[in-house]
Amino acid sequence: MVFGSLNIDIIFPVDHIVRPGETIGSDDLVKSAGGKGANQAAALAKAGLEVYMAGKVGRDGRFLLDLLNSYGVNTSNVAEYDGETGQAMIQVDRQGQNSIVLYAGGNGRITGEEIRRTLACFDPGDILVLQNEISRVGEIMEAAAEKGMRIYFNPSPYDQQLEELPLSRVGVFFVNEIEAAALAGLPPESSPEKILRILTGRFPRTEIVLTAGKDGAYYGCEGMREKAGIVDVPVVDTTGAGDTFTGYFTAARCRGCSPAESLYIACRASSIAVSRRGAMAAIPLAREVFL
Ligand code: RIB
Predict the structure, then answer these.
(1) C-beta 37 within 6 A of ligand 1
(2) For ligand 1, atom 1, which residue shows the shortest CA distance?
(3) Is the CB–ligand 1 distance for residue 92 below 6 Å?
(4) Which CATH class is domain 2-285?
C-alpha cells in the first residue's frame, strides 16, 4: 500500500533552470500525472504487484485516479475533498535535469480518521510505501508499525523535520546521495561507502538503498554491500526516475529477488524512465524491464 502524494505536474521544458530575478520562456506546457506517491504506486503496479493507494485529491485530480486504475492500482482509499489537488511546477532543462515547486493541496490535508480507515484494510506483513510529500507521515508510520506492517520510506523531499519522525520503525530506506548524506549527518559530497557505514550503524537491520544518479545505486544492510550501474541512455527527463527505482526495487524484492538482482532491475527501469518525458507516463512496463 502506498500512502502518499498525488500531484498534477505542470511541466515547462526550458533552456536552463530559471535563476533568481530572471524571467525565461518555455516553448511547451504539459499537464500530466505525478506525485511521488502516485508515481511509486504506478511503478509497483506496472511491475506487476497488487497495489493500493491512499491519499487525497480534489475534483481536479479525478483523472489521476482513472490513470492509476488503468494500471491496476486500487484507489478506493484515496479521499476526495472540496479543494485543489497537489500541484508541481516542474522546469526541465536541455540536460533533462529538473527543478520543482510544490503546492501540497490535498496531500497536506490527510486526517487521523483517513489514516485509521485506511490502515484497517491491511494486515501484519503488508508493505507500506511512504514518501515525505503528505501530512502526518509520523502518525502513519507509528500506526502501521503497531499493526506489524513493513515500512519502506523514501524521505523525499528531505527537510529538517524528518529527524522528528519515528525512523527506527523503517524497514527499508530509499535515499538519493543528498538525502542519504543529510540523514547520516555528513557533507553532501561524502562517498556512498562512508554514508552506508554510518546509516547501517544508525539503523541496524534496516536496508538502505542509495541512488547515486549516473553512478548507479548502492545497497547496505548490516555488513552486506551491493552495487549496480545504470544503463547508459540519452537523458531526456529525470523527473520520477527515483520513484521508478523505488517501485521496481520493491517489486523485485517482493518477488524474491536478491538485493543485488533488485538493484540491477531497478537501475534498468529508472534508466528507461529518464529516456522519456514526464513522470508517471515515463515509467516502463515489466516486459520492458524484465528481459
Ligand atoms: O518524484 C517526481 C515527482 O515529484 C513529480 O511527479 C512531482 O509531482 C513531485 O512530487
Answers:
(1) no
(2) 240
(3) no
(4) alpha beta
What is residue 160's predicted lDDT score, i.e. its pLDDT? 86
**Domain residue spans in the chain?**
2-285
Give me the chain's average pLDDT, please.
96
Instruction: List, for residues 37-90, the tens digit of each pLDDT value.
Output: 999 999 999 999 999 999 999 999 999 999 999 999 999 999 999 999 999 999
For the chain, the DSSP string reads -EE---EEEEEEE-SSPPPTT-----S--EEEEE-HHHHHHHHHHHTT---EEEEEE-GGGHHHHHHHHHTT-EEEEEEE-SSPPEEEEEEE-TTS-EEEEEE-GGGG---HHHHHHHHTT--TT-EEEEESSSS-HHHHHHHHHHHTPEEEEE--S--GGGGGS-GGGEEEEEEEHHHHHHHHT--TT--HHHHHHHHHHHSTT-EEEEE-GGG-EEEEETTEEEEEPPP----S--TTHHHHHHHHHHHHHHTT--HHHHHHHHHHHHHHHHTSSSSGGGPPPHHHH--
Our answer on whether the CB atom of 184 is closer than 6 Å to any ligand 1 atom is: no
Does any ligand 1 atom lie closer than 6 A to the CB of residue 58?
no
pLDDT digits 0-9 by tens, 174-233: 999 999 999 999 999 999 999 999 999 999 999 999 999 889 999 999 999 999 998 999
Please report the atom of ligand 1 found closest to the CA of residue 279. Answer: 6
Ligand 1 centre distance from Cα of residue 103 (Å): 11
**pLDDT score at 291:** 63
Measure 39 CA to ligand 1 centroid, in angstroms: 8
- C-beta of 77 in contact with ligand 1 (< 6 A): no
